[in-house]
Protein 1
Amino acid sequence: MTLIQKLQNIVTEKFASDDIYVRHAYSRNVHPDLQGVPEYVVRPKDAKEISEILKVANEENIPVIPRGGGDCEWGGSIATGDVGIILDMKRMDNIMNLDEENLICTVEAGISWGKLNEYLSRFGLYTGCMGPGSGLTASIGGGISHHSVGAGGCAKYGACTNQLVSLEVVLPTGEIIETGSQANKFSKFPFNRFGNGPDLAGLFCGDNGIYGVKTKVSLQVFPKPPFANYKTFLCPRNSAEVAAQIFTEIRQKGIDVYDAMYIDEILIKLGTNTFGMYPMFEHLKRKRGIVFYVVEANSEQELEEKIKQLDNILLSNKAEELGSEIADGNFAKWHYTEGQWQTYHNCWGIIPTFENITTECFTPIKSFPKILKDIEVWDIENEENMKKIEEIAGFRPISGTGVVPLVDGNNVELTCGFTTFGCYHDGEYHEIIKDINLKLWKSFLTLVLKHGVQFYMMGSIPSRLMVEIGAYTSEYYNLMKSIKKTLDPHMILSRGKFNFWEDD
Amino acid sequence: MSKIENLKKQWEAIMSCMGCGDCGFAIRPAVGRYLVCPVKEAKGEEGFEIWFARGRMNVLKSILEGKLELSKDLAEFAYQCSECGSCTDTCHETHNPYIILNTSKWIDHVEVWHALRQDLIKAGFAPLDRHAKLIEYMNNPDMRNPYGEPKEKKFEWLNDVKGVSKTGDLAFYAGCTEPLRQKETLLNLAKIFNAAGKEFAVIEDEWCCGSISIRIGDIEAVKPNIEHNIEQIKKTGAKKVFVACAGCYRTLKKDWPEIFGQDLPFEVVNVTEVLLDLINNESLKIPEKDTEVIKVAYHDPCHLGRHMDFYEPPREVIAKIPNTEMIELRRNRNNAWCCGAGGGVKSQFPELALDIAKDRIDEAVESGIDILLTECPFCVGNLADSVKKENTNMKVLDIIDYIATKI
Amino acid sequence: MSEVYQKLKKIVSEKFVSNDLYMRHAYSRNVDPVLQGIPEYVVRPKDAKEISEILKIVNEENIPVIPRGAGCCEFGGSKPIGDGGIVLDMKRMENIINLDEENLIITVEAGISWSKLNEYLSQFGLYTGCMGPGSGLTASVGGGISHHSVGGGGCAKYGACTNQLVSLEIVLPTGEIIETGSQANKYSKFPFNRFGNGPDLASLFCGDNGIFGVKTKVSLQVFPRPDFANYKTFLLPRKSVEASVNIFTEIRKKGVDVYDAIYIMDLLVSVGCQYGLFPLWDNLKRKRGVFFYVIEANSEVELEEKTKQLDNILLTNKAEELGPEIADGNFAKWHYTEQGHWLFAHNLWGVVPGFEPLDAECHTPINSYPAILKDLDQWDQEHSEEMNMILEIAGFRPITGSGPIILIDGNNVEFTCGFTSFASYIDGKYYDIIRETNIKLWKSILERVTKWGVQWYMMGEIMSRLMIEIGAYSEEYYNFLKSIKKTLDPNLILSRGKFNF
């Protein structure tokens, strides 16, 4: 029997394909250069099918790459090399149960944050942390695989894995397990993550898909408070430092802000003056950095009180409040009421084929202005390569950062990088752009990594780079690897990430 | 390697697609958006990414980069798309004027699919069998319509109406579908005009506007039709031509000038704009004859709505009809769900068209309306085919037919 | 002295290792009357490096090692299973290594107690949020992390103490030392985040009951202690169990960020008053269940507003507010202001001499505990014979019920149920029969509660093994757990016997 027949025997003919066009449809993520054309694409319907697929893959020694929304910016849900089976998890996008009494929602892992939250909103609930910035498409399973943050709520609720209650996981060798309260098989429904022995769910949190395939996720959900306010402020000069100061004071005063974010000066300037992204800021005389916050409350008075506390911090740092409407520049209002899953898309396609090559990381609040300064230096150091790109694409890359949100604890999510272009321009594929992109990208990641930041979405590029530049201690890497080998002796799952290869 | 001239011209759009996937999955209650791609949803669990915009863009990137070729197999995928434009509307659109996602400026998916279809035609992998027939009929001198009907049959409806002439300021371009398949609507149109005491001119020897051929990607086949029709319209002396078909509307107003290479010597308007004028200047009075309030909703045809940004006149007309309560469907205007007929889907993949329509019919039934109104004979046809299969009393009507019941 | 002793001495120096018989017996018990295991050696290491060397030696010699924080486990978790092995007394490692005031992160040695740490933090207006387990005056931070501890206050707001974990330094069973979270990137200068740099490997050691590694350094997120707090205690109406469920559930459904919310069942109130534990409630005419809450805020107005929201819930559930002072019955005030949170679980100890609860501490959904309590009544009756036998010897029939029920993470409570029993030594005599009955009844009640689908967190010797014996883990899950154990600890050195490894 051929492999495609074996796969079709498991999922039926309709749900496994080796069609060349179908395979190419799955050959990319959110990135212009990284590609990997899989040999097969399968749309499994449940954990049992995935278990059987993994058993076949182990027999045949063929890698398997789980793919949620396909929104990784580092090639996390495409094949590393033109090999393997893509597991398209998007068929598994059902809501299995909403436990209204215990505020726990159990879903299939392929469901998007947008779809889940639309459902929850009918009950006055939400997920708290709204997942990653790409949550309209990105899946819950993918969020859990990366500790995703960014779409909103992460100042209050932290990374989405904080809300995890229970996981159903298919191990690389095909066994199906459930974690947390479900490790006790007498438990009728998921209610708690922490117990029944070690927190084994944690192994799959942030694993970038190397330890198991998430099939079912139970998340704590929350009543969406009936009151909220959102304000946007123009920072004084040195706005990055001011923003860091504001964030720190918010934490030190312990105000449970829902979101607090900073938009860097360079983004406001170019975005408004040059690229027409922010009509809301056009009226600003001085285009400086912007800080905005969202705060929620259970009553109007509680809300007012929290606003007072926050405004106090903002105003004492000489931030200047913009008007209350989106048209007045109130980015916060747009973010909370409409735009939470689009805030990051701003930087894509500013001019045609324009693309950011970035690193998304967590870093202590006060460290980010220093990193930004260092990036400016890096940009100048790479002038020659930048010019080469300009010659072909007609635009010199810009280095900087996207929106900087306050996340878990006293950290920010820093999405910094440089703008570049895809290789294909005007009828021609420019190999040189690809080379420069990859070279600059690795150089940039190394620069940021050496600031001691923490990556969470690592895909194939950062996960391997960390190993290559020796950022892990050998003890730590060996632990990660020994667990990998125990769970996945043939290195079937997401082969290549973290440089875990078949012959290791 | 086959030529991909048209796709190459779309390289900026294709390469600007970042692959976020919102064109397949977006649900944004904040702006009334509930899912995006009718084909993907109709494919349901079999919805490999090739069935919606992101996967298709990935394939086109590979084609541009020379890693993949056009083929007949690709044509089978490419023509299973109603070109409803919902993906474009979702792609990096904030739907707020104060914040712009720039990608939306460079990517028009329908234009990209169109380029692909043109290249498939040029390479000989398309048209598919049924589409080939339509084009053949359209260019048959004895037919000049895609339905394969004798040329004369298209003008039979005129035998039953009065108040039309061969010349005048206002001409009516009847198209093919209503004269040949939904004649009643045209009779009702004449009835309304009669009631308003208004005349219009009809076009002698009117040929198919070419919409279907353009959607299929055969531009060459349609050039003689455009030239002929422009000449015939000129003969009426009309400054304004109105159409009662969303496909014709887009084709005349947008495609003709582009393919013809210059502005048309007349203005093209939609029948609802004409009706609205007649109601506003009080020449058309719709009496309040029954007391029962009828609940209606308006289904935005893609060729009027997303393709032409034409949303309000039909609603304004409906608002003026007595004893009529207008309810907006959950997905309306630019978020409207496609009926499934467009882009050549109904003719080549009728089951797919019906699967898509079912989604829209279910939505309409859920809203509790009595009549689903629209302003496109393809939507009327496909939605009516679908509603027959459902256990509901809800009807699907053209706005023209609904007004006629009130007169 | 044996060769092993010599080797240990070489690592930690003579002062910090002992195989003295009295010393060994001093480390032979935890907080329960039944379980005992006498180690062969007791070692007090000073750092991860020493522990690493110890672990390397024991792997060569095949001697089990049992890390011991404060020894407050109620299930025999920090003493040997059977006699023998080395107890690692972590209490020498109790220093505060660094307080990062800017990022509100504290790094401590794992042996420090929750109370010592919080005393230090209070000098800066900070606290740990979740105040650890109910035995936090003694219990160590490392032990808390090993069990997802809750119960010592603040867990309605902050959840289990592992929620606050930022980074861990661990000595693996084979001696390698790793640091987790942000510290996995060796360019990181100080710990700042748990989640990233690949899989959350810290989680392996959270709740591991000491089987996967020895925690040596813990970085925790700490929090500004809010300037304002309120605390109220209420007498519940009849059917107080059900009323308490409704109140807990409504608090969560309304999303009020209560700091603590705790229910004390009527049996406990009435028996407690009878035995003179609760003079603050002597004046209550009706000894029904009691409910109390603590709420914090950053301003007086905010506090008033939150108090209003909570009182609303309590009053609509017909709870009756007691006076504001401790003397008026305001248990909450004692709990929050006098750090009663680290004492109130001790209430049930020694009600009469030798008296001791054998209990089950678990997490369970809020709405599940009334049914479990009813089933425990049933269980009690089913075991009347054994209960009477204990009565004959000890002069007191065991009582079955629950200690304070504490709202924790999510919509769960910490449910400490069990039965009161006696130690085997009574009045000059050691009763084997009491010991046997205790173990038999204990396992029986643990099994009964397990079958309600609860979740155990502090599992120690007895619970971790019982889970396997009664088949509560699926085969796949247990194999998965075991395969990781064997990967990390091929000779099954660490906490040998737990989970039947």
Protein 2
Amino acid sequence: MIILGISAFYHDSAAALVENGKVRYAAQEERFTRKKNDASFPVHAIRFCLSEAEYSLNDVDAIAYYEKPFLKFERLLETYYAFAPKGFLSFAKAMPVWLTEKLFMKQVIRKHLKNIGALKKLSVPIRFPEHHLSHAASAFYTSPFERSAFLTVDGVGEWATTSFGMADRTEGVRILGELHFPDSPGLFYSSFTYFLGFEVNAGEYKMMGLAPYSNASSKNVQHFVQCIKQHLIDLRPDGSFQLNKAYFAYPVGLRMVNDRQWEKLFACKRRQPDAPLLQVHADLAMAAQLVLEEILLNMLRHVKAQTKARYLCMAGGVALNCVANSVLHAQQVFDDIFIQPAAGDAGGALGAALAVAHIGQNTQPETNHTPFSPYLGVKSSHHNIVQLLRTHHCTYNYIENNDDLMQQTAHHLAANKVVGWFRGRAEFGPRALGNRSILASASHPEMQRTLNLKIKFREGFRPFAPAVCAEDYDTWFEPGKQSYYMQFTGKIKQAKRIPLPGGFEDWSLDEKRQFPKSALPAITHIDYSARIQVVTQEINPDFWNLLQAYKKVSQVGVLINTSFNVKDEPIVNTPEDALACFMKTEMDVLVLENCIIEK
Amino acid sequence: MEFLRDFFLFLKERKKWWLVPLLLIFLLLGALLFFSSGSALAPFIYTLF
């Protein structure tokens, strides 16, 4: 049975192809159109999935769209009705799109699919699993568990903003409880993203990276936490909560919050996007992060009490908050937590297809004995790469033997060169996991600054993530949850840390950033944390070999692994994208499969 | 027709019949906006009101 999963029209549209219950290909539309978080119908991603599998649309047995448009429309109408006459502007803006397009999703999907290819089987069913069911299926069916609880947390799907339940290979996925709009953990967090001048639905991870520049136990942070709990949110013992709607504008407004009330509450002006970041912004980011962690921990305890499960799967945009994930894991409410790499809405395409493939079917899906591979996207042939390099008159060195390629690349990295690394299939999900990565030395003290300013052109305060072979994890990091997909953070080993000098807390954000905090300064965040990618030979043999080769040359088995893109651009997809990115930055070396290009 | 059938089944399942008049008004308003912007029906719409 071949199922095509689709997510589209909100943000991060994507397509996934599932055959006989197994995920074959998946890709985000933004990688093809080069528009960050592209929400348009994933024409290119669908074409890619079908052509890789050598199928046409006529071979597809069912199409799965990742949410229920009617239910979402019901939520919109009821919300506008409840808040009327407030929200008329937002209502007038939303309705035309709904009444001409989104409400007629079946017809819209068919129309778009017709442009991709003949859809002879007009009777091919289009299924609409609920948004949170899609998230839950994406988390559970890619996990190694036979049976587990799940918790899905995001901005909003149809009505649900949070859901939990039980999932079982035999019995399927059962939702046991939900929290409904407008009480939303995701939108609560995004409200702070907005207030701190970052882009909503895109800048949340920047805010997460900003928070550690503050001190969780400082007076200011504790004051903000009190303000939030006293005025913005009412936390309940069962893990649910209620937001104080007087402070939030997002239910029917065009803004996230009521700016004036927030400015009065926090005695701080809303930060404009280009304004400098001050300590107060980091304090507020930390307070929001702490409250989010408390919300999630309450939920986790409730899920445990209700399900008595040993394991937990998580999905939804909030499950991409690796700092909160690590706090949850450290509390050991569950024996283990699994979060697949595309936990956000792009993963909804995958989840919708998996839900249709498994739920209500008579077949029992097998337990996954190997880790879920995130390498589901575009791959390039040697022929295409050579042709591209010749067209652009690039001088390149073709190295046929993989071991030689790893050694040469390792030597470049050891010489503190920045390497664009393009090999194998593109990753599915927001993180580059060693196939579309920019790699560099993690031990060089200036590397963070060089990468941020000369190559990524992004905010200087943001840390870089490390990649390390599983065998070397304990050498560099404290024992903790190891993740193949950078969904958790870990701490740098005590012995590798450099103690912070006296008065450090009073330093400016930039001074704090510049101080080397460990033997791996480029990947050590201000609180000695790092978002670690653990690499095994099984999950990514090429990348594992490179890390091993680098270790032999440099004695350090850790590399910076940052996504192969520049600020506000999607990760590169094709060799053309990689070459263009290489040419417009100060990257030193580009590896395109087995071709090395040096500047 | 498929849309109407699906929407009817949705309303039945959710027991949200009160949405019907609201939706009809929206659809009529939508149609009015559509036809009033440059269609052959435009000259007659003003006189209707």
